[in-house]
Each structure stands twice: as structure tokens, then as C-alpha cells.
Design goal:
The chain is α/β, with parallel strands linked by helices. The chain contains eight helices and 17 strands. The protein has three domains: 168 residues, Rossmann fold; 58 residues, Adenine nucleotide alpha hydrolases-like domains (SH3 type barrels), CATH 2.30.30; 79 residues, Translation factors (Elongation Factor Tu (Ef-tu), domain 3), CATH 2.40.30. The longest helix is centred in the first third of the chain and has 20 residues. The protein is globular, with a radius of gyration of 22 Å.
């Protein structure tokens, strides 16, 4: 049996993950990360007490600020659309936290993410969870083979309803606790307002594709590709159809708008990629691409690029793809490769 540190957030998923590993005979320790506030410390400690396992409290607010929050601000400042959950998984939970866990002599780290890990011939495969609506393989697709080898994901074969019912049956104190928010460091969900506080006003122009000025804005960070609301334009389009954000030119403080059909794209390119299997492919191959958490999959052909990125040709166009988002390519339910769209 293994010596495993479980990232116990104070929620129901990580609590049941810890309980299942304990039932399987592993030596389990609960580790709670303080990333922004200490609001969930009591719940996390209560879970450890209920299970009778050791509890460690680690303050990683500095690392979280530098690696996640500062990156989030900079990415938006550059006119791109980041996913802070992927960044956190890559740099904090399976980065700084996993390094510390291994340094203390643990065999690895477990979390309450909904995804499956299968060992085949010395390789650890990252696969989708059985419940599609809860699948979190997309936000774990940034993990390397070395990280996956040291990871346990006990919930991938279960549904959320099964996990919550199990928590109740076990008498875990967080069995009825509500789901956490999408961006943990923006408590009220007002991303634009939060960015304005951190970046300050950066007024500029809203223009059409010909460069005609249609209005003004207080900052490009208020906008992302595909957005329709909040444009507040002075004049309607000639055809009377709604306009959408087609591009964000942060250096020139310009937001470009146009018709929805101009949002369609069938070709993507990414920066350097992560091959989840640890084996980089050099020849083009077929797969299915996903560019948002819980977004639709589209058949595609992937061509590895000389600079370490990948080109993705989609079988059908998708709308509103923004630089900064992550493209993940699957083979059926297997994560093959991921990269940030440029």
C-alpha cells in the first residue's frame, strides 16, 4: 500500500476521495492548502478528524499569487483569455504541492477530481470520468506523465450523486456542502470588476473590421472573443444583426467587432504542448478537440509543429475561440495532448 497525501479542500469530493483511499488500506494524510483565505480550514480539519487521519495545513498564498493570480492578470492584460484552474493544477496542486509531498516521503498526491487514471504497460493514461457532466480531464490535461505517475484520482468511476450519497452514509461533515465557485479568488464572480480594480481604467476604441470607430471602452480586459453583451455601441450594424467581439488588440487598446459568422474558425495553432502519455508524436493524427471545460468535442486532424506546438484542423468550424484558451485533443476518452491556443 502507498503513503498518500490527499488534497482536502473542505468539500465533499476530496473528503470521499480520502475515505476511499483509507478503505483501500493506504496510509493517508489530509493536506489543506491555504491559497486565498482560511475559510475552508475548519471543514477540511473536520473531515480529517472524522476519518481519523493526520491533518497538515500548508500556506501557499505567495505561490498562488505569483503563479496563478499574477498570470491571470497578465494574460488578460495581453488580450488573451486564461483558464486559472488549469494554471493552478499545473503550477500549484501538481506542481509546488506535489513537489513538497514527494519531498516529505509520500508516494504521491490524490485529489477529488472526476477523471480516471489507467496504468497500461508502464504508462499512466488520463481518461475521461464516467459521468460526462462532471468530467474534469480537460483541466488535468496539462499534467505530464511524471506527474500522472504520482497521482491518485479515486472518484473517476463514480457520479456526483453517488459521491454525495456516500459522504452522507459515512457521516462526513461536508456531505451536504454546496459546490465551490469557478474562480476561487473572485468571490462575487465579477471578473471584469475584479480586473478593473487590479489593472485600472485603460480606455480605448471599439472598431469594426474596416477600422471605423463604433464606440469606446474602459479596458480591453472587459472583453473576450465571442462576447456579445456589454458593447454599448453608438450605432447598429447596417444589416441590423448583432455584433460580436472578433478580436482584442490589447497593445493598441482596440476591440474589434463584427458579425457572428466571422467568429467561425476551423484552424487552431497552439504553443508548446504537453503529451500526456509522455511520448511525442511526429506524424499527423486524427482525434477530437475540445477548447473549453465541458465544451463540445470536434473531430480534428493534428499536425505537430517544428516549434513544439500543434496545428489543429477541425472537421467543422467552432465559434468564439480566444487566444489563451487551452486546446485538448482526445482519442475517444483518452487525453492525448494539450496546448495553449495562440
Amino acid at each position: 500500500m502507498a503513503k498518500i497525501a490527499v488534497a482536502v479542500s473542505g468539500g465533499v469530493d476530496s473528503a470521499v476521495a480520502a475515505a476511499r483511499l483509507l478503505d483501500a488500506g493506504h496510509d493517508v494524510t489530509a493536506v489543506h492548502l491555504v491559497l486565498q483565505s482560511r475559510a475552508a480550514v475548519a471543514d477540511a480539519r473536520a473531515v480529517a478528524d472524522a476519518l481519523g487521519i493526520p491533518f497538515l495545513l500548508w500556506d501557499m498564498t505567495d505561490e498562488f499569487q505569483q503563479l496563478v493570480i499574477d498570470d491571470f492578470i497578465e494574460t488578460y492584460s495581453n488580450g488573451q483569455t486564461p483558464n486559472p484552474c488549469l494554471t493552478c493544477n499545473r503550477t500549484i496542486k501538481f506542481g509546488a504541492m506535489l513537489d513538497r509531498v514527494l519531498g516529505l516521503g509520500f508516494d504521491g498526491l490524490a485529489t477529488g477530481h472526476y477523471a480516471r487514471l489507467l496504468s497500461t504497460g508502464g504508462t499512466v493514461e488520463l481518461r475521461r470520468a464516467f459521468e460526462a457532466a462532471k468530467d474534469q480531464s480537460y483541466v488535468l490535461a496539462v499534467l505530464t506523465q511524471a506527474q500522472l505517475r504520482r497521482t491518485w484520482l479515486p472518484l473517476g468511476a463514480s457520479s456526483k450523486s453517488q459521491v454525495r450519497a456516500e459522504a452522507g452514509e459515512r457521516g462526513l461533515p461536508v456531505a451536504a456542502k454546496a459546490e465551490s465557485m469557478d474562480i476561487c479568488f473572485i468571490a462575487d464572480g465579477d471578473t471584469s470588476g475584479w480586473l478593473k480594480q487590479h489593472l485600472g481604467p485603460r480606455p480605448g476604441e471599439i472598431v469594426d473590421e474596416s477600422g471605423e470607430v463604433l464606440g469606446t471602452h474602459d479596458g480591453t480586459f472587459f472583453f473576450t472573443v465571442g462576447q456579445r453583451r456589454g458593447l454599448n455601441l453608438r450605432q447598429p450594424a447596417a444589416d441590423g444583426q448583432p455584433r460580436f467581439v472578433l478580436g482584442v488588440d490589447a497593445p493598441n487598446r482596440r476591440v474589434v467587432v463584427g458579425p457572428k459568422e466571422h467568429l467561425a474558425t476551423a484552424h487552431l495553432e497552439t504553443g508548446p504542448v504537453v503529451w500526456s502519455s509522455g511520448v511525442a508524436q511526429v506524424a499527423p493524427f486524427e482525434g477530437r478537440a475540445q477548447v473549453r471545460a465541458h465544451g463540445e468535442e470536434v473531430d480534428c486532424r493534428v499536425t505537430p509543429l517544428a516549434d513544439g506546438g500543434m496545428g489543429i484542423e477541425l472537421s467543422s468550424a467552432i465559434y468564439g475561440v480566444a487566444p489563451g484558451q487551452t486546446a485538448v485533443v482526445y482519442d475517444d476518452d483518452l487525453v492525448v495532448v494539450s496546448g495553449v491556443i495562440r
